[in-house]
């Protein structure tokens, strides 16, 4: 099916992109965007990050207002507490047709901040799920986003044109844009990001409480299970605090842990938990998908993401715009 031509579905590619924040994600994005041939410029409130990017040959602006001048895409790539100050700083300097996005873990707080401090801006929230424990410009990698899911937020007031332009760029970076709402995204990441980090911290502390012998014997299971506890605490805090959905995720995890504890206390086996967990992990690894054409109808687009699908290509031709994607079978 070909989507009929309509002004809202004309999706010219971006040409000049500003990245505000040059840590792991922002730095990787700056590198990856330049590899696609786009004109890029960065800025970071931390002088050391800007100096490192400049030393690597990237243009770095002296301030945020200068950085966003002439940009048709601006990316907020700073921790959540820094988003509001950034919006206050750059909001008045954005062109009417500039698209604004972000790369933070939680989407509802950023959406609320944009609506309050930069109303009228063409905002499309984003979240590339591509982080590693290392942080900062030194850890940045232009290949970081290859094959990673990238939540792209679609709300009732989201510009379809802006969303399609950003989805096309995400595809160009080798990532998988997943259409979703801010609320759905935050609920989902509570279980696959927030909860794993909380459990990793708990595991690290529990292992420590076992004493030196246990730590000397610790190997693959402990190392893998506590790996993300190496993440900077302030980042973990920004991913968890304020996400009410994490409470329900913790309740579910506590239920399973309590069931295992009660079984052991009663002399029973933890096999039911081990079997169910093994099946859940195996099924996730072996999910199968099929190629589909995705309609640009907003409700259907969000439904595609809710069903586990993503976009693989944004095709532009004389007849309009077509979206190709994948969905679970």
UniProtKB/TrEMBL annotation:
Q: Where is the Prephenate/arogenate dehydrogenase domain?
A: 15-295
Gene3D superfamilies per the UniProt record, alphabetical: 6-phosphogluconate dehydrogenase C-terminal like domain, NAD(P)-binding Rossmann-like Domain
User: Could you state one GO biological process linked to this protein?
Assistant: tyrosine biosynthetic process
| Gene Ontology molecular function | NAD+ binding; prephenate dehydrogenase (NAD+) activity; prephenate dehydrogenase (NADP+) activity
InterPro entries this protein is in? 6-PGluconate_DH-like_C_sf (IPR008927), NAD(P)-bd_dom_sf (IPR036291), PDH_C (IPR046825), PDH_N (IPR046826), Preph/Arog_dehydrog (IPR050812), Prephen_DH (IPR003099)
* SUPFAM superfamilies with a match to the protein in the record: 6-phosphogluconate dehydrogenase C-terminal domain-like (SSF48179), NAD(P)-binding Rossmann-fold domains (SSF51735)
Q: Which key words are in the record?
A: Oxidoreductase
User: What's this protein's family per the entry?
Assistant: Belongs to the prephenate/arogenate dehydrogenase family.
- Spell out the protein name for this chain: Prephenate dehydrogenase
């Amino acid at each position: 099916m070909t989507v009929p031509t309509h002004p809202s579905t004309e999706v010219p590619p971006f040409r000049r992109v500003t990245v505000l924040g040059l840590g792991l994600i922002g730095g990787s994005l700056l590198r990856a965007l330049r590899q696609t041939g786009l004109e890029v410029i960065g800025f970071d409130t931390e002088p050391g990050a800007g100096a490192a990017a400049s030393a690597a040959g990237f243009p770095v602006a002296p301030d945020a207002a200068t950085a966003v001048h002439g940009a048709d895409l601006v990316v907020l790539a700073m921790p959540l507490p820094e988003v509001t100050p950034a919006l206050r700083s750059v909001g008045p300097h954005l062109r009417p047709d500039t698209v604004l996005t972000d790369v933070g873990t939680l989407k509802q707080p950023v959406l609320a901040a944009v609506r309050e401090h930069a109303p009228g801006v063409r905002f499309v929230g984003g979240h590339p799920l591509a982080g590693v424990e290392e942080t900062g410009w030194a850890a940045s990698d232009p290949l970081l986003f290859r094959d990673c899911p990238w939540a792209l937020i679609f709300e009732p007031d989201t510009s379809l044109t802006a969303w399609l332009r950003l989805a096309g760029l995400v595809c160009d970076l080798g990532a998988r844009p997943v259409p979703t709402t801010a609320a759905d995204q935050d609920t989902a990441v509570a279980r696959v990001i927030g909860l794993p980090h909380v459990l990793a911290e708990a595991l690290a502390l529990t292992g420590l409480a076992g004493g030196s012998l246990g730590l000397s014997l610790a190997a693959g299971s402990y190392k893998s299970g506590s790996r993300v506890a190496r993440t900077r605490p302030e980042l973990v805090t920004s991913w968890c605090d304020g996400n009410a959905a994490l409470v329900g995720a913790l309740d579910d995890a506590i239920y399973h842990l309590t069931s295992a504890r009660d079984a052991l206390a009663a002399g029973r086996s933890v096999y039911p938990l081990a079997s169910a967990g093994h099946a859940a992990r195996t099924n996730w690894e072996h999910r199968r998908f099929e190629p589909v054409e995705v309609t640009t109808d907003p409700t259907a687009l969000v439904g595609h993401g809710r069903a586990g699908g993503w976009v693989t290509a944004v095709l532009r031709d004389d007849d309009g715009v077509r979206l190709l994607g994948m969905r679970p079978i």
